[in-house]
Specification:
With 366 residues, the protein is of the alpha/beta class. It folds into 2 domains: 2-83 and 183-365, QueA-like (3-Layer(aba) Sandwich), CATH 3.40.1780; 87-168, QueA-like (Thrombin, subunit H). It has helices spanning 14-17, 66-69, 159-162, 165-168, 209-217, 256-267, 277-287, 328-337, 339-351, and strands at 2-3, 47-51, 58-62, 75-79, 81-83, 87-92, 98-108, 111-117, 127-131, 137-149, 152-156, 194-197, 221-227, 250-254, 272-275, 298-302, 317-321, 362-365. The strands form 3 sheets. Strands 1-16-14-13-4-15-17-18-2-3 form a 10-stranded mixed β-sheet. Strands 6-7-8-11-10-9 form a 6-stranded antiparallel β-barrel. The longest helix has 13 residues, at 339-351.
Length: 366
């Protein structure tokens, strides 16, 4: 397994394959009432649009039908990252002013990159006294290390506090979800096992244990990778030209075992189907140095930016939710399904009243 250096995606992106693309080309009008506020129960009862990436043909099924839509010998690859209870509240020890922190990433040595409100007022060395979920004084505190601009700071969180975030933190639901979540675990996938994300890999929210059993009984494999999701995933691009957008960096890892399963699937004629855009980013990061004869995993930071024109190396298909307009995720799905096909599919989804975004319905592109 390789590790260490960032696996930049710049060799296959913006400067080369997206120089002609405008962010506005990936916009669409979404009626606000189609933004799902609560999850469907059971998880696999969501609707599932099928999209043929070559012809653009669209079909309408349910997520529970997925075993019938894939082939024996295919391999699903999912992101097993678990969401941190990352939204924590406290007061400035000197002034008593309220502070909200949203933990984005563990930097090591007890340091965490965080979004803070109010960020500009916080100074290096300042102590923030944490509150419990009930709003009471906890007796624990964190210290501001430095500011990083754009609302971000780095704080030092003692190890015992970091290990007990459930006492302080709330689930960081995306800003377009306004309904409280009755069960925080519903914003985790059923197979989440490696804590570290600031947001859920939402395509996997549809997967139930029963669905995995039925996939396995049909001869469809399952493998896992890890990518800790950052909040930039949800932010629309602000640049006019796609090539001017700076993609976020996220930590990911693939085991040698998973790499071996991918290689065997390919050798036997099966397809590699990513469960979600985060899994797709990991697989294509792995694919940059891929050798079918010598498969191996990796651990790295990735800033791979997948846009139309991307040469897909390992991903043959994708299970995904419906994404925000003018987002990097719209570019990724358009890179696989074709911009015109994707926009036509989104129009069909709106006309058919599909539910959008994190708790919404799904699409499978093959």
């Amino acid at each position: 397994m390789t590790s260490g250096t960032p696996a930049s995606g710049r060799d296959q992106s913006p400067g080369d394959s997206a120089g002609h693309l405008l962010t506005a080309e990936f916009d669409f009008a979404l009626p606000p009432e189609l933004i799902a506020q609560t999850p469907i129960e059971p998880r696999d009862a969501s609707r599932l649009m099928t999209l043929d990436r070559r012809s653009g043909a669209i079909g309408h099924r349910m997520v529970r039908d997925l075993p019938d839509l894939l082939r024996p010998g295919d391999l699903l690859v999912a992101n097993n990252s678990r969401v941190l209870p990352a939204r924590i509240h406290g007061v400035r020890s000197q002034t008593g002013g309220q502070v909200e922190l949203l933990l984005l990433r563990n930097l090591g040595d007890d340091l965490w990159r965080s979004l803070a409100r109010p960020a500009r007022r916080l100074r290096p060395g300042e102590r923030i006294d944490l509150l419990t979920q009930e709003g009471n004084a906890s007796g624990s505190s964190v210290v501001v290390e430095r500011g990083e601009g754009d609302g971000q700071i780095v704080v030092r969180i003692p190890g015992d506090v970091a290990r007990d975030l459930e006492r302080y933190g709330e689930m960081p639901l995306p800003p377009y979800i306004h309904e409280p979540l009755a069960r925080p675990e519903r914003y985790q996938t059923t197979y989440a096992s490696v804590t570290g994300s600031a947001a859920a890999p939402t395509a996997g929210l549809h997967i139930t244990e029963d669905l995995r059993d039925r996939l396995a009984s049909r001869g469809i494999g399952w493998a896992e990778v890890t990518l800790h999701v950052g909040l930039d995933t949800f932010r629309p691009m602000q640049t006019e030209r796609v090539q001017d957008h700076r993609i976020h960096t996220e930590w990911c890892t693939v085991s040698d075992e998973t790499a071996g399963r991918i290689a065997r699937t390919r050798a036997e004629g099966g397809r590699v189907i990513a469960v979600g855009t985060t899994a797709a980013r990991v697989l294509e990061t792995l694919g940059r140095g891929w050798d079918d004869a010598r498969p191996g995993g990796l651990t790295t930071d990735t800033d791979i930016f997948i846009v139309p024109g991307h040469r897909w190396r390992l991903v043959d298909g994708l299970l995904t939710n419906f994404h925000l307009p003018k987002s990097t995720l719209m570019l990724l799905v358009s890179a696989l399904g074709g911009r015109d096909h994707i926009l036509a599919a989104y129009t069909a989804a709106i006309n058919a009243r599909y539910r959008f975004f994190s708790f919404g319905d799904a699409m499978v592109i093959v």
